[in-house]
Amino acid sequence: MDLLRWTLIFLVIALVAAVFGFGGVAASFASIGKILFFVFIVLFVISLFFGRGGRRNRL
Q1: 36 CB contacts (<8 Å, ≥6 apart)?
Q2: H-only helix segments in the chain
Q3: Which keywords accompany this UniProt record (predicted)?
């Protein structure tokens, strides 16, 4: 969840920079946020697939 928190932080920074008129800074923070979001989604999907194999009931 830490990666998703960083994505939201970069989103807020990009929105604040866009409000104050710093277009280049806002665009770079938005692109960093997008990259982190897609990395989070990929890691989430991978953890869904590999996380299920370890839980087996042994009698």
Answers
A1: 3, 6, 7, 10
A2: 2-19, 23-51
A3: Cell membrane, Membrane, Transmembrane, Transmembrane helix
Q: What burial letters (b/e) apply to 35-44, b meaning 16+ CB within 10 Å?
A: ebbeebeeee
Tens digits of per-residue pLDDT, 5-26? 888 888 888 888 888 887 788 8
CA dist., res. 46 & res. 50, Å (int): 6
41, two tokens: 């989604």
CA dihedral 37, 41, 42, 45 (to 10 degrees): 170
pTM of the model: 0.61
